[in-house]
Amino acid sequence: MSELVRVVVDAMGGDYAPEEPVKGAVEALRENQSIFIYLAGKEDVIRRELKKYTYPEDRLKIVPASQVIETGEPPAAAIQKKKDSSLVAGLQMVRKGEADAFVSSGSTGAVLVGGQVIVRKIPGVERAPLAPLIPTERGVSLLIDCGANVDARPSHLLQFAAMGSIYMEYILGVKKPRVAIVNIGAEEEKGNALVKETFPLLKECRDIHFVGNIEARDIPKGKADVIVTEAFVGNVILKLYEGVASVLIHEVKKGMLSTLRSKIGALLVKPALKETLKSFDASEYGGAPLLGLRGLVVKTHGSAKAIEIRHSIHQCVQFQKQELNQKIQQYLRLSDR
Amino acid sequence: MSELVRVVVDAMGGDYAPEEPVKGAVEALRENQSIFIYLAGKEDVIRRELKKYTYPEDRLKIVPASQVIETGEPPAAAIQKKKDSSLVAGLQMVRKGEADAFVSSGSTGAVLVGGQVIVRKIPGVERAPLAPLIPTERGVSLLIDCGANVDARPSHLLQFAAMGSIYMEYILGVKKPRVAIVNIGAEEEKGNALVKETFPLLKECRDIHFVGNIEARDIPKGKADVIVTEAFVGNVILKLYEGVASVLIHEVKKGMLSTLRSKIGALLVKPALKETLKSFDASEYGGAPLLGLRGLVVKTHGSAKAIEIRHSIHQCVQFQKQELNQKIQQYLRLSDR
Asked: Do B240 and A242 count as a contact with CB atoms less than 8 A apart?
């Protein structure tokens, strides 16, 4: 029992709760013998969902929580007020060491604030960045930080670069991950004050494989594995990525259905295209970890389906088995600060 | 003759110079009787290109310039050193009032610096923003600022909002253009220090139709006509837009050619799809104006073909006929600062 990785899944968070979180949890449980799942939320609701499935019952437990934090609520106040919410209950379990990780599709703000306030940062970590994987032509890259803490300092970005490298190396298996900083040109002397100050610090850093600036147009080409930027820009990149892709795919579909001829073509093209677009779908890679906390917190999309929950749970297992937090702590001890 | 709009085209700038700039200039000349074109660059080279076409010769003149500013050169030094470049010669003509506008596909940095140093800002304009049109589901939006001046102040953003509104209203014919500021959430209290300071100022501004924050994912949906942001973020948005679109279109094409079945489908789908993707091609809308200068300077893509040059020239005519600079000056007089 002690070797099981214990993951709390927020059964009430996201647009498709409780169906999809419960389904994803059950699927992950079936796929991997070393997972123990806690489902946090309204007991009767979860029980009703669970009736749909057969699953190893000795590795799943319900954590009753009567409240739900809604997406619109101010995060800090909601966490303060709704002590019996699935989100707070789950994070508390990670804080107390009763669980190793927490996965939620609920309010991003509440997950971010809750992670920092309840689970708390590893001593020495200045900021806990939200680091989603984004699809590229060549696989995926880690975009770090996309969280809510804007106006970062160079020392924050330096830690993001290190934590991101560790993540890509041990969770995604990328050897010597290429780290780049988002800038508006490829030349070293370009950029705003923050980037200009951070660039030489990253260059000096011996623990990471820094490859210099990355222009936004090269991000989808997969020219770096770890893409370092402060949260405002990261957030813009993440959301624009989704926005452009969804509008473009919508337009392509519309174009294909505009004439009889193209409709016939669309039928023939569809299976091949589906495969292509799948590789550009972020949910295939699981949620975004909030790095640098004393336990793992993973934020999945608000619209996450079972597949994303499932992948996120497997990500938690990998995180735990690879002792990622110990590796981050080790880095902090080794670094000068 | 006095009513002709005089546009200098940089015949030596961009990846396809001199062929495409010359071609675009000739086409624009044929399409519109009220244009006078100056082609700046190496006389023999331009003369050779012009031999390919018949055109109204009384409305075209070559401005001999022996030097070319390359993309890699440090902008300020290049402008200082290469006084006889097509770029400097063209900008000088606008400065002296010998031409109304300058269009170039050459080095962005040199166009930006040259515009400010040679043509100079309208008195009262704090910064001259580069404002490209970006394609959306519903047409185009103006993204302002994508230039090289990072670390902006709230008063800069306020002027961008006003100049952008004037541009969209009088050049694109958008009545009461919706102005939004790029932010990481829709709520008023979100954002970094700059956005939080600028938001209430925009809200108070009676000359513009401010609609609040815009999240990056809503930009491709066309939820605002004028998208205000500081240059670093604007640059990231512009380049990511191009990057995601080009990678995705590439992947779609690759997907379509991956099986025999899909290849047949691709043939049937192609004509309809071409039309769709055309509407998502920024070059259809001409180049990016550098607003707030004493004359008009338009930067076209480095890879601009004749069509983009042509559209940019027509844009210059519109700019001049609508007396846009007078309108900007009028706004500056009316505003409190």
From this structure: no
Instruction: Give the angle subtended at the CA of A278 by the CAs of A276 and A280, to the nearest 5°.
Output: 85
H or E, element range at A143: strand A139-144
Over range B2-27, report the average pLDDT: 94
The HSE-up count of residue B162 (CA atoms within 13 Å, CB side) is: 30
Give A246's contacts in chain B (Cβ within 8 Å).
217, 220
Give the whole-angstrom CA distance, residue B226 versus residue B258. 40
**Candidates B193, B236, B259; nearest CB to A216:** B236
Q: What is the CA radius of gyration of chain B?
A: 20
Report the pLDDT averaged over residues B22-26. Answer: 97
Query: Which residues are CB-contacts of B265 (< 8 A; sequence separation ≥ 6)?
Result: A264, A265, A266, A267, A268, A269, A270, B256
Residue type, A23: K
User: What pLDDT does B180 receive?
Assistant: 97
Dist CA A223 CA A178 (whole Å): 8
pTM: 0.90
CB atoms closer than 10 angstroms to residue B251: 18
Give tens-digit pLDDT for B294-337: 999 999 998 899 999 999 999 999 999 999 999 998 888 877 54
B197 touches chain A (CB under 8 A): no
pLDDT lower than 70: segments of chain A: 1-2, 279, 281-284, 336-337
Question: What is the distance, to the nearest Å, from the Cα of residue B68 to the centroid of all Cα atoms in its chain?
Answer: 21
Euclidean distance between CA atoms A314 and A115, whole angstroms: 20
Q: Mark which residues 269-288 of B lie under 8 Å from A by CB.
A: 269-273, 275-277, 279-280
Question: B128-138 pLDDT, tens per residue?
Answer: 999 999 989 88
Given a cut of 50, is residue B1 above it in pLDDT? no
Q: What is the ipTM of this complex?
A: 0.89
The per-residue DSSP string of B94-124 comes to: HHTTS-SEEEE-S-HHHHHHHIIIII-BPTT
B40: alpha, beta or left, given left = phi > 0 and alpha = psi -120 to 50?
beta
